[in-house]
Amino acid sequence: MTTNSTLLGGGISVDLDAITRNWKAIDTISGQALTAAVVKADAYGLGLRAVSRTLYQAGARFFFVATPDEGVALRAALPRAHIFILDGLVPRTARDYAAHNLMPVLASMGQLTEWLDFCLNRGEAAPAALHFDTGFNRVGFRMKEAELVQRELSQTRFEPQMIMSHLACADQPSHEMTRKQNGLFQGILNLFPDIPASLANSAAIMTSKDYHYQMVRPGIAVYGGRAINSRSNPMAPVIAMDVPILQIKEARIGETVGYGALHRLRRDTRLAIVGIGYADGFFRSLSGIGGQMGGKVAINGALAPILGRISMDMTAIDITDVPGFVQPGDLVEVLGPNVTVDDVADAARTIGYEILTTLNGRFPRRYVNVPNGVSID
Ligand SMILES: *Cc1c(COP(=O)(O)O)cnc(C)c1O
After folding, report:
1. Closest among 327, 245, 315, 318 to 281, alpha carbons compared
2. Any ligand 1 atom below 6 A from CB of 38
3. Taking the model in full, what pTM does it have?
4. Which among 15, 23, 32 is positioned nearest to 55, based on CA atoms?
5. Which of 45, 48, 5 is nearest to 376 (CA)?
6. Which atom of ligand 1 is nearest to the CA of 201?
């Protein structure tokens, strides 16, 4: 998956040095707080092993994944990291978590009871964190369960490693929901004095020190994505993607392009058909239909709009105004210096997170600027 190539050509490159710089920049912002790294979903689609080893080398020691299976894979890559499982404790798997030294982020009374019973039976506490739902309404103990949790724990000698919660609106820094959730979180922390706390994702880290507590949990910013919608993105871009041109054709004014014959050409147009489609995660919502602007790619440094519907494996682009000589086999920039992850996200009416985790398809991934001492196998 790292250095293999395809007959088709094109590919994805992931800049591991940019990941290092981004993590270190966040670590500087977070000051006294420990900077963890969120590497769920195959490190946001960039490759769990290479990315997590890069982050460990940069100094990260605490890692978050979603599922216990991701945790097992991460443990194989990083024997000594501290690993939290954000999905919580999957019923009847406590023994597996402990066998791989994975810490569940416990989120319900059922999970807490199962974990405490497991610890009692083995005669030894196994570390875990607690997640309180301060208003997101995703996983987490309900606010009103906090005292019950505290009472349950006071009857054991079990001390959670960490108390955490997650913000719903951190990407909009002035949203009142964030202050409200933070207030509720502080109320919870009063019940668990001296236990480390964690609240901030990338956006909250950049918003205020008030949200840093003892550990911050950045994901998207490490991978170069924009965390805060209304601001320019300070992070270094990490991913680039090039795909080949299959064919070039001169189409005439009045002809239509693609399925549904929905886009009618308003001028004679030089089209390039490129070898990427929605099966590669190239969002169909990037289609350029009628007057409606779709996505863009770049070629020879110039932007070229997508014309007509994106199909499963192919996309038509307008290269009429692209300077220089273009021929089949030339590579088109889908992501890179001229087309950022967030440009694509905006055009597809989604977020950079979905672009990173979805847009990869059939293309081989190559790691560039691999830090010294990092093994990417
Ligand atoms: C995904 C996730 C994060 C990371 O969020 P980013 O916005 O990518 O920084 C942090 N905490 C939790 C609980 C998450 O699910």
Report:
1. 315
2. yes
3. 0.96
4. 23
5. 48
6. 9
